[in-house]
Fold:
Amino acid sequence: MQVKGCCPLDCQDSCAWVASVADGQVTRVEGAKDHPVTRGVLCAKVKDYEGRLTAPGRLLQPLQRTGPKGSGQFAEISWDKALDEIASRFRAIISEHGAEALMPYSYLGSQGVVQRLALNRVFHALGASRQTGAICAMSAAALMGEGHPIGVDPEETPEASLIILWGQNVLTTCHHQWHFIEAARKRGARLIAIDPCQTRTTKQCDLHLAPRPGSDSVLAAAIGRHLLTSGRADLELAELWVSDLAAYRLRVAPWTFEKAAEATGLTAEEIEGLAEEFASARTALIRGGIAPQQARNGEAFVRGLSALAILGGHWRRPGGGLSILSMPQLPEAQADRADLAPGNARAFDIARLGEILETASPPVKGLMVWSANPAATQIDGPRVRRGLAREDLFTVVIDHFLTDTARLADIVLPATTQFEHVDVQGAWGHHYVMANLPAIAPAGAARSSGAIMRGLAEKLGLDHPAFRESDEEIAASALPEGWSWAELAEAGWRKSPTPRPAIAPRTERLRISDGPIEAPDAVEQGLLQLLTPKSHYFLNSTFANMPRHKKSQGAPAVTLNAADAARLRLTEGQTVTLSSGSGALDAVLRLSDGVRPGIACFEGKWWEEAGPRHQMNSLTPSLWSPAGQPAYNEVYVRIAPVNPG
Ligand SMILES: Nc1nc2c(c(=O)[nH]1)N[C@H]1C(S)=C(S)[C@@H](COP(=O)(O)OP(=O)(O)OC[C@H]3O[C@@H](n4cnc5c(=O)[nH]c(N)nc54)[C@H](O)[C@@H]3O)O[C@H]1N2
Ligand SMILES: Nc1nc2c(c(=O)[nH]1)N[C@H]1C(S)=C(S)[C@@H](COP(=O)(O)OP(=O)(O)OC[C@H]3O[C@@H](n4cnc5c(=O)[nH]c(N)nc54)[C@H](O)[C@@H]3O)O[C@H]1N2
Ligand code: SF4
Ligand SMILES: [Mo]
Structure:
């Protein structure tokens, strides 16, 4: 039997897949060949996703903590007992501290609407604190909120004559975009990468420029200045869309090629060459990545790129513009049911979990985490882990495995995987809404978020039709008007395009001059800036416990330029300790000319399980951009041989 579904992971591509089932087991999962974007191929992470169903450590039964917090000592309990315990603890917290002492925390571990949003219904109805914000792409989301267009349908890519991959490692993070890029190249397009590090992707580009991290807004300003001074800016489009062109002119005026060279570490000739290519391109597509947003000036990066897409006139033609988040129109808030809330409870920005658990007043006393592993993925990990370890905090975690976050929980609930539940999701790298059908019955006692929502609501005495909806009904409630769940489930996917922005006067004019355009701070003597780009075989911390993925990824490693290693008297292959004001981790040293001097690169969000000190967020500080994007890249580390004691 073959069952249609889709990959649920937090990745631009949202691949369509087909699961082969025999005797109630998934024997194989393959890409669906007829999906217009993902075309029958799964990535190196997901090609054997069926292995997750039976992997060692898969949670199959609810667990209750029996030892000290974080000890990993749990006993299996029944669902009835687990839900009773959660309901009675939640009730006690509400009566003693008020409903706002409860906090839900979820992220995109599964992009599925049911897995992500169904449980929010319970928290809304209780009047709990609401979750807002995000830990990824917040800078892009903030600019989108201001009205900046930041998504281009990837199926238009072949129309582009110049493609700039600005801090995006396509061949590792969203490789289904590559065939569109190749199609453009076959028609003569040039491909340029702007990335401080050499990657699988930069090696395939016609040109790779490696500026200092955090200097992108300066580089963009130098290009913008060139558009204006050479008379090739699309002033008509700027007139229609932008409110602050005069201010922008003044802001970019100082950034001559020479000045920008000092700030970016590129040569003036390299910047001039790039600016000239951009100015003379017929249709330029800028694909902006996530890492350059992970800084205090993340919004300045996105704004700088948006200014170029507008001033270059590239929104006028299909294939052109700026693409960071390219999404179908899916009104998923309909499934969240914020309308069930009795009032307007306080909202917590989930990107500040560590701070919230430490300082919120009144304090958070009950926390439920699902579809996320914040103990490994949140900024300032040590602070988050201190918060999760609080004796007076009651924590429930729902996951497939005993993650670092689950280890700190009081109750752990076993979640179904994408093969075992129904769901619907969008994507952030194309315009298709994807349906997922269950291929097999849940393993052990695993339950979907929808089933947990129904069970918990009953125990809490919540009585509203929203708490009796089946998972199919929850999925259907998120669909655009006029769509039928049955038809979508039959087809597997359906395009719900987000139209290109109209070339017409805007009522809300865009601002392109706001925010700092400045050179990144000089790095203190003896320190290196740590970048933590996505790893090829893990998806954030997902898969960091899977034997096959760990083997492919290799030992936790930090990569430096040979010149830095020589200066620090370190040699390839030795184990080193990286330390910052927040904490420390150990890694094997690797050398590469592909990493800029002054930078250390650490891939893979390892769990503590991998060893006592391999978590990258042990090093990151409590720091955010103005829009709330965690500044994961603003971390400066000392690197020394590991202390054998
Ligand atoms: N294999 C794999 N795929 C994934 C993920 C994964 O963990 N593994 N995660 C998924 C998720 S959640 C996301 S958000 C996306 C992210 O997808 P991408 O945006 O492609 O990935 P990043 O690793 O965030 O950053 C891409 C590149 O930016 C570079 N970079 C770092 N700092 C700067 C800077 O200041 N300026 C410039 N110009 N470049 C910089 C890095 O060296 C890196 O090569 O990938 C998704 N896909
Ligand atoms: N230092 C540093 N930190 C970073 C980043 C970085 O580049 N550097 N990147 C950041 C980015 S871009 C992101 S998006 C975040 C990601 O942060 P998280 O969202 O915490 O991502 P994951 O580590 O993948 O954890 C997702 C969890 O969801 C679980 N899960 C999967 N499917 C389901 C399901 O159906 N139900 C339930 N209940 N659980 C499920 C998985 O098993 C996994 O444990 O990390 C951020 N953290
Ligand atoms: S992680 Fe991304 S590329 Fe890999 S199968 Fe899932 S959606 Fe496709
Ligand atoms: Mo992300």
